[in-house]
Amino acid sequence: LPRVLSGIQPTAGSFHLGNYLGALRQWVALQDTAEAFYCVVDQHAITMDWDPEELRRNTLVSAAQLLALGVDPQRSSLFVQSHVPEHVQLSWVLECLARFGEASRMTQFKDKSQREGAGGSSVGLFTYPVLQAADILVYQADEVPVGEDQRQHLELTRDLATRFNGRFGDTFTVPAARIPQGAAKILDLQSPEKKMSKSLPPAGCVFLLDDPRVTAKKIRSAVTDTGREVVADPVGKPGVTNLLAIHSALSGRSVTELEEHFAGRGYGDLKKELAEVVLEFVTPVRARTQELLDDRAELERLLASGAARAREVAGQTVRTAYERVGFLPPV
Ligand code: ATP
Ligand code: MG
Fold first, then answer.
1. Would you tell me which of 145, 148, 267, 314 could form a disulfide with 184, CB atoms 3.0–4.6 Å apart?
2. Catalytic residues, which ones?
3. How far is the CA of 264 from the centre of ligand 2 (A)?
4. What would the mean pLDDT of 7-28 be, rounded to a whole number?
5. Residue 145 contacts residue 30 (beta carbons within 8 Å)
6. What would the pLDDT profile of 101-159 be if each residue is shown by its tens digit?
């Protein structure tokens, strides 16, 4: 079986539709055909300002949501990044192979560092893609299911793996990105020129755990375009196209079919129906997440067993990599 690794930040507590349609839906689907390692990347969540109590809470909420969405701990290893110290151990070696210039070219770093205040951005925000490379390489992953926005980071991961292998001998599998078609990039409802993101103002971001009334309101208030016809046109009508893409991804009906369905009707009808489609999807996910959170001991037990399985694989990789770079093995 091919091996798959992916991670998601617990920063906002709730995941959003972009996370689900761009990445998490594939996590669930891949469990049938791959050996999967899925983690809540809490260490990535401290690269920008954070609150410790909130981080702890959001880590649990994230794990519960993943289970509610269909990650199955019998078939996949689900764990918390900080429970597997091998990620950081490998990351140091990769940091010493990565070049300052290549890390400086990461567009997410440029975007996010601009949003930081007068204190400037952390060194962790800068080296974050290298830790992400370690997250992936430490499992010898063949594939990484992610959204379109992660393509550049995946390219860096591949470069670092290739560089290490070239210098120290074949050690790492060079992973491929697995980016879904159609829903690879869900756009913000208020600023449809940007990707939907938890780091933008919440009005444009549909969180899975939002109150149903909030969800309906966000969709009703989505920015649409001039004209009145419900047709997909990424350049002329990015807002409407995005709403159609979300509808199509959740309802399973093609965009062409939806254009016919909405022929002669307006944007209001599209939004009303989309709100129904979204609520039908999120309502059971919310309920299940709450149930799982109600039994915290069981949730923590699942995460501990996922981490134990992950450490078996990750420990082996770190031992090999440390030996190859010349660290004296501890006896
Ligand atoms: P941030 O904007 O702070 O980076 P995020 O919303 O991108 O947060 P992440 O935890 O960084 O959340 O991403 C988790 C996964 O969701 C990644 O695989 C990423 O590619 C995917 N993803 C995030 N936003 C979108 C989006 N708008 N459309 C499709 N996929 C997305
Ligand atoms: Mg992101």
1. 148
2. 112, 195, 198
3. 38
4. 95
5. yes
6. 999 999 999 988 888 777 789 999 999 999 999 999 999 999 999 988 899 999 999 99
What pLDDT is recorded for position 120? Answer: 87
Q: 18 C-alpha vs ligand 2 centroid, how far in Å?
A: 10
Q: What is the pLDDT of residues 288-301, one digit of tens each?
A: 999 999 999 999 99
Centre of ligand 2 to C-alpha 149, Å, is 7
The H helix count followed by the E strand count for the chain is 13, 5
Single-letter amino acid, residue 60: L
Q: What is the 3-state secondary structure (H, E, C) of 107-176?
A: HHHHHHHHHCCCCCCCHHHHHHHHHHHHHHHCCCCCEEECCHHHHHHHHHHHHHHHHHHHHHCCCCCCCE
* pTM of the predicted structure, to 2 decimals: 0.94
Q: Residue whose CA is closest, atom 3 of ligand 1?
A: 199
Mean pLDDT of 255-261: 97
251 is in an annotated binding site: no
Query: Within 6 Å (CB) of ligand 1, which residues are found?
Result: 8-9, 18-19, 22-23, 146-147, 149-150, 184-186, 195-199
| Calpha distance 11→81 (Å, rounded) | 13
Residues 6 or more apart in contact with residue 67 via CB below 8 angstroms: 73, 78, 288, 292, 299, 302
Indicate the top mutation candidate among 19, 40, 81 to test ligand 1's pocket, ranked by most ligand atoms within 8 A of CB.
19
pLDDT at 183: 67
